[in-house]
Fold:
Amino acid sequence: MNTRFLLLTASGTALAALLASCATTTETERPTASRVTAITPAPIRPDSVGAMASAPDATAPAATAASAATPPTVATATGTTSAADPAVVAAALAADRADPTAPSAREASEARAKEKKMTNADYKLMLAAADQSLKLNPKNPQALLQKAKANSYLKNYKEALPIYTLAAKYARNNPDIYYNRGVNRLMLKQYKLATNDFGIAIKYRPDDKESLFGRGVAKMQMYQYKAAVPDFTRAIKLDSTFADAWEYRGISFASFDRPKEARHDLEMAAKLNPEAKKSLRQYVGNEGMPAPAKTAAPVKAAVAPKRR
Structure:
């Protein structure tokens, strides 16, 4: 396949409802006419995960003593819970922890790489197996996830979306579902909802570089280049050989007049992946300034590193 999106692990995926609205973009974030005039996603490979509303990262600071006068609130995948009793808060937090049966970030990445190599015939077998399991237990979140992923791989993105959402209903703290639904939403150009899904996946699995990358890509598609940079930076810190993260951070820098940083990142990406030389030529001129773009280069959205 000629795209960079990878499907989630065997633990599943699920898409959500139609994109309610696109995030507003400011003129300072939009690329100038002499640079990147528009960014449109390249064809994306089936990937998806179920998600609901946006959730804060796991790194969000805890409440301080100064807020003791206000009943504590607990952010969960399903919303914010208010409770005056610390025991209630602790119980809510415990209930909102990541699914202990979900794979680690490394295991998920390895599983995605394997699934990427599968054929359409394999995806159809995956779909058939999931349907068989669902006959025995229609509420099996793993089977629902597999069914949604199989549909995504087969490019049945709209069909996959409600299945991801149903999987999230029965396993709302499974990061795999949210990652995969996030990718599936990217395929449907539901960028804001994709950002929300990746955010929940990151909350439950903060070291998932591919979820961080996916959220950065979704922000880029909404012209939020500055906001995308921290996500790519975190992905690079987790894996300094993540060529796609270097490339996309470089493109983001080029979009808001950071030529030095753009050149550095795109040169790093080109060292790790020769294909990134195209972006180096496209977005950075010989003197270290962004090169004028006659036509906008499509952003090759990706959530996981390509296997070449």
